[in-house]
Amino acid sequence: MTWGNTASRSLGGQEDVGSEPDCFFTAHTSFFYKAKSSTDEQIDWRKQELTIGEIQQKVKEYNAQINSSLYMVVNKDGSYTGFIKVQFQLVRPISLPPPKKLSLTQEGGPQERLKKRRTSFYLPKDTAKHLHISSRTRAREVIQALLNKFTVVDNPAKFALFERTERQNQVYLRKLSDDERPLHLRLCAGPSEKALSLVLKENETGDVNWDAFSLPELCNFLRILQREEEEHVRQIVRRYALARDKMKQAMARITTPG
């Protein structure tokens, strides 16, 4: 079961604009494990504190490079609003609430248990979404808004927002903290998705507070892991069976006279 990229209402009460064609990079992925030279330093957009005058100038330069439907707007108090594009790179399925018709069933019987069931499916890899947010909107609020748009009932702690940059044929990923402001990062980096793009991924296992999940959610995680493990085992068995057949064919050619 899959969903396409449909327009829905943004945080600011406006309609989402259609996603422009995604950019696909062929660079190798790196997670900051390699040493960086002085000419290959990661740019930290978080540390760029801007005055109202600098914000106005940057917004003017930003708007000159993009489609008018994606303009940023500066408010009198120095805050500003605009659109961010978030790409989904989820490797695990997400859960939707049960069909509404189940809520009409009587309590206590088998139908009551059906109400607690959820539908799980994988999002297409090319899914992306535009959100209209404020410069004061935090990363955790962006994650919650994205889940609301897709009516995802999974715990938001399962997900994290990442900053993706491409430099010198390398791709770098940095996990945003809950209080970081994505629109501020977008403005400082400019509209180029090579300089910065935002990606929604599963949270790193070490950062997840498993105590925050309910028992049904934890059981669902175990089922998903079991399926992935079984599929991985099947792939290994197929790979070794194929290698064994090729070895037997090669041995037969060697031992056959002539």
UniProtKB/TrEMBL annotation:
**GO MF term list:** zinc ion binding
Residues in Ras-associating domain copies: 116-205
**Chief localisation class:** cytoplasm
List the Gene3D superfamilies hit by this protein, alphabetically.
Answer: 1.20.5.110, Phosphatidylinositol 3-kinase Catalytic Subunit, Chain A, domain 1
GO BP, one example?
A: Ras protein signal transduction
InterPro entries in the record, alphabetically?
Answer: RA_dom, RASSF1-6, SARAH_dom, Ubiquitin-like_domsf
Keywords (A to Z) from UniProt: Cytoplasm, Cytoskeleton, Metal-binding, Microtubule, Phosphoprotein, Zinc, Zinc-finger
Per its UniProt record, what SUPFAM superfamilies does this chain match?
Ubiquitin-like (SSF54236)
What's in the GO CC field? Answer: microtubule; nucleus
Q: Does the keyword Nucleotide-binding apply?
A: no
Ranges of residues in domain SARAH: 207-254
Cellular localisation: Cytoplasm, Cytoskeleton
Under PANTHER family, the record lists: RAS ASSOCIATION DOMAIN-CONTAINING PROTEIN 1, RASSF
Protein name as catalogued? Ras association domain family member 1
Q: Which organism is it from?
A: Myripristis murdjan (pinecone soldierfish)
